[in-house]
Design brief:
The protein is of the alpha+beta class. It is built from 4 helices and 6 strands. It has one domain: Hotdog Thioesterase (Thiol Ester Dehydrase, Chain A, Roll). It is elongated and about 55 Å long. This is Dehydratase.
Length: 156
């Protein structure tokens, strides 16, 4: 028997299961992304903002801010639509690693795996443990980590 999945806008804690894997669409990182992020974060480190200096550095070109990659990963998850209506609170970012640089022109995607699901002690919400992996167009892992999320339960 085929299980009918709820529309993304109506997902609740009960619709998630340990082992589920979701993959986002891609998003290409632009020079404008890096410049904008540097502007509003005030992080103008030359490794991000100085093409001449970065050309002589470890990566040979400017790289995106690590937290820009994390922010893009969160935005890509948002585009899935499955966490939007049920999200109550982000609980923490654990073990986030920056494994490879993200550069202008990279197209990144995020894969999220549900690794844990439990009801809160009050029973009125659920906790999802999620492992996120951000990869580039060559399937190189550029960032990874775990992000817990408190989500709403379906009303009885």
């Amino acid at each position: 028997m085929t299980q009918e999945m709820p529309s993304p806008a109506s997902w609740y804690f009960e619709d998630f299961a340990v082992g589920q894997v979701f993959r986002t669409q891609g998003r290409t990182i632009t020079e404008s992304d890096i410049v904008s992020f540097a502007g509003w974060s005030w992080d103008t480190n030359p490794v991000h903002t100085d093409a001449v200096s970065a050309a002589g550095g470890r990566f040979g070109e400017p790289i995106a801010h690590g937290v820009l990659g994390l922010s893009v990963a969160m935005g890509l998850l948002s585009r899935l639509g499955i966490f939007e209506a049920c999200s109550i609170a982000l609980l923490g970012i654990d073990g986030w690693r920056f494994e490879a640089p993200v550069v202008v022109g990279d197209t990144v995607r995020c894969t999220v795996t549900i690794t844990g699901a439990r009801a809160t002690s009050k029973g009125d919400a659920g906790i999802l443990e999620r492992d996120l992996v951000l990869t580039n167009q060559d399937d190189v892992v550029v960032q990874r980590g775990s992000i817990g999320l408190m989500v709403a339960r379906r009303q009885a």
